[in-house]
User: Fold this.
Amino acid sequence: MTMFRIRIFELSVCFAALLLAQPALAQAALEPSTPVSSAWVPMTDAELADMRGGYLTAGGVVFDFGAIVRTYVDGALALETRLTWTPTGPITEQVTGDLPGWTTLIPGQFGGLDLTGLPAGANGLVLTDENGSTALVHNVLNGQLQNMVLNAANGRDIRQDMQVMLTLPNFEAMQRDYSLDRLGAQIGQDLDWGSIQGYGR
Amino acid sequence: MKVSGLTGLAAAAVLTVVGLAAPAAAQVAFSQGGGNYSVQVISYRDIPFRTVVRQEYDYSCGSAALATLLRYHYGRDVAEREVFLYMYENGNREAIERVGFSLLDMKRYLQNHGFESDGFRMSLDALEEAGAPAIVVINQQGYRHFVVLKGMADGRVLVGDPALGLKTYSREEFTSMWNGIAFLIRDSADHYNLADDWRPFAKAPMDRALPTDSLAELTRELPPLYQITTTFSLDPYLR
Assistant:
């Protein structure tokens, strides 16, 4: 009888020990394994939002892109727009020729010209005088390079030009890498084909 | 194409590509007399992308890097397209089109898919000690580009570049391009620093004798055209 009580007591002690151990086990199971040290300070969401990456072409080519759009009226530069693509996005710069009578373009009707439907991002100049109205419109944003002249005037000599520059700063190295790739592929192909033919003889 | 597993083939072969289910691999069938054989092949163009998701668009290195991290290090079957669409639809589209995805776009995607992640400023030594893959930003000719740091060993850093595939850099080269920011998932990765990822960059064992039972040894005395090289280092072509 005494022995039986002792065994019950032993079982109770074991059961109690298991109960006590359970929270510790549960805590260990919930503790995730992580490569991140608790000493590291996470960056804020604002900092993460600023950390952007892109504009390396899918083929691994880094490039510089720029464009200059110019319009000349009666031989003098009337309007010049420069687009430069930078690592943080495109930058535009517009220079006017300060010719007499030209004003900044705003949407509206000007002496027979309807300038109400111009695309967003379009900038330019308008001249209305005794010969009529002329509008010069440059638009180099929103995926477009536009150089437009809307003219209802007589006797103006208008000339446009557009210069587009695409620079591949590492072109020589890239060309060398591609040549090596092709050479490696050719050597591999020759070896494989030679091996197959060799075994066939 | 690099043909593997040629042992035992006696074939003046007719090559036929019979399957192109995955862009990175295919099966080539050989027929000789009454025998038909097939081997798995991978093109030289795709070899560097065995464990890297290739970016589809000029500004999508962020989505491809995240897909690489999830697919090849956390065992999730994720394609670049679904990562791209989620981050594009939920991010600042104008900024994404102009300068690419942000680490915050990635953090939000991961949160939505059950992962906790954060960006940290740290040293390369600390990142090596963490022993985990990370998305890092490198500066290439003034342009910021997301790549996955896949491992480090023997003073070199293994990178999964969504535009170029697997690349290795010396610690000095990598440090000169890296801005010191690493983006990590807080859960431990399934795979990191895999030997297979380093293999294309393995040095040829020039100091070791060939075992007598090797295919290369068997053909060593034949004219070079008929010699079989069982390992072909891509190292000089991929750096």
